[in-house]
Amino acid sequence: MSDKAARKRQYIIDTAKTVFADKGFKSVTMKDIVEACDISRGGLYIYFDSTESIFNEIISEAAKQSIESVTGKTAGDKLAFFLNEQKKEILSKDKSLATALYEYLFYMQSIGNSDNAAADAFHMGLDTIEAIIREGVESGEFYADDVHTIALNIMYLMEGLKIAARTTGVSEKDIDSQLIFILGSLIAEE
Amino acid sequence: MSDKAARKRQYIIDTAKTVFADKGFKSVTMKDIVEACDISRGGLYIYFDSTESIFNEIISEAAKQSIESVTGKTAGDKLAFFLNEQKKEILSKDKSLATALYEYLFYMQSIGNSDNAAADAFHMGLDTIEAIIREGVESGEFYADDVHTIALNIMYLMEGLKIAARTTGVSEKDIDSQLIFILGSLIAEE
Amino acid sequence: MSDKAARKRQYIIDTAKTVFADKGFKSVTMKDIVEACDISRGGLYIYFDSTESIFNEIISEAAKQSIESVTGKTAGDKLAFFLNEQKKEILSKDKSLATALYEYLFYMQSIGNSDNAAADAFHMGLDTIEAIIREGVESGEFYADDVHTIALNIMYLMEGLKIAARTTGVSEKDIDSQLIFILGSLIAEE
Amino acid sequence: MSDKAARKRQYIIDTAKTVFADKGFKSVTMKDIVEACDISRGGLYIYFDSTESIFNEIISEAAKQSIESVTGKTAGDKLAFFLNEQKKEILSKDKSLATALYEYLFYMQSIGNSDNAAADAFHMGLDTIEAIIREGVESGEFYADDVHTIALNIMYLMEGLKIAARTTGVSEKDIDSQLIFILGSLIAEE
DNA sequence: AATGAATGAGCCTTCATTCAT
DNA sequence: TATGAATGAAGGCTCATTCAT
Predict the structure, then answer these.
(1) What are A89-98's pLDDT values in tens digits?
(2) How many domains, in total, are found in chain A?
(3) Are residues B129 and B78 in the same domain?
């Protein structure tokens, strides 16, 4: 029975994910989720007691999955892979939870709740990229004075691109030139 | 009487601004604004018919004001000035409308309403910085291969820092090292 | 307009009074009152935000009215008048708010809210009767060792009769013999 | 197995008693009891189908137990014993079911359901005290014109004190002076 | 017997919006 | 123009009650 419950819980999470991807965070109501899941109001409350708690679950799940392997032989390959993943995410406007995630973070901030699932995710990304660059520097592939600052620079840039993609718009060409610019600045300075 | 009306309209806008700065965008209700302005419910509707329309007015007004003069003798001075303004904005978490603005943009996107006020503001900033860099390159102060890409890079980075400041957090030290990194990359490569 | 509002407020209080008299306290919902008053849900909330606040208003109003003059020439007349008023209240099972009042008091107690509109009313009654007896003793009409204790005795007895009338039942004959017993004990002991 | 069932039923009653003592009658839900008993929702329904039916069981059980022996050699001793028991009950605000009982009775009255369990209990008490007084009168210990009226007087007074203890408050001193007053009036009048 | 997930009714509360004055 | 009372829709939450297992 607990197995069945777990499956239902997962079903709710998966269904809710599409709702959040569709409508962002703040606009989603428990009723929306009830309707999307085609269950009763009370039924939803057995599993979750707010849209926040559902969304929380969604992002921690997403966080787990995103620790997935950055593959590549050389540091350059790994960085290229990482940046390409980022590019995909930047461009995946509709299907993604990014907008909802930002709304959620802003909302959390506005109510003074500095919850950290998202901060954690940011720092995990930062660590990953820092490790890649450091590896590249050690192998002589990259040149970098201050690895931490460069890693941060890349992360902020990605963040800026994601935001821009969702607000003012970015062209794929713009993204590409930014990515090339990063790679170039790591390699060029010999 | 149109004069009196204009003054009242302006009063509403100014008062509402503090509300949005306080609570973000989505959480603000017409009731909040009515109360902050200490006017009647019906009275507000004479001037605005939704929080969106009020916020719209606020940002177009803000856009006008932000074309502020970038002062400085040399391009380096101007860039330093510009970046310092950005830094102030990044750090001005509470008093600023930035959070509300992002919420608004995300909301607009989520209901498929791609507003351009924000895009305009972004491009104005981009133009400004591009002009500065170009000036610096021409005067020999800066070195840059692709001015447009570098200008975009700076803008996205600023955007990323603003977001991070409002979600995962940034230290002033981190901001400073990013700004120095930018300046360094423009000057260093002779 | 404030006049109209005051009239509406009063209308709600008066209508709600019949609802409470009918159904007691705990069973009454905001919806019940909305329906009895034939106004909108939101409309009721303009004036009151809970059944408690409405009931509170009802009892403070009732308290004011009950300070009404105890009439009579001699202390004996006054006491007889007072007791007769009490008798009426004891017997007025249906139309009265007494049941709702007790429910309210128990509820208040159970949530630890020792609000005192009711305690005040009790003490006002106590003071009244104490004054009457004291007057009678001084004029030689009554005989009493300890006026305070006798006054309390009468008040508790009245309370007991009211409760009994609403739970186990009392006959008018029983009430009368109790009232005569009180009067007798004040006069008899010369 | 009927034995096991009986034990479980008793367990529910005993546990529910503490819940009612805590929260009164009207505020207790089936869910509260389910949680207090740590059984399943469905499980509770096998034995009882409403809070009313549980509470009913509790009070009939209590009624059986309250026919406790009034001990004492002389009528004076017995009366003193009886009154002392009453005093304890008056003061036992928290641990007792009295509040819940009153709420229950008022609720029953408000829905027009005149239960007799309470009336029975009242009359049993009345009979007890009447017998004691009569015994005292016959033995010459007490003086009383109208035994029934005095017995009723005492019962109503006790009721009034119980209510007051649970609503407006009574001091132990007040109770004592009332009890002394009663005893005094039975003895004093020779 | 027992479990506890599921349902749906019922009440609460807040606002956007209208409208008579 | 301005007011603010009034409405009703919308969403939140909690339970009593049922039922498949």
Answers:
(1) 899 876 678 8
(2) 2
(3) yes
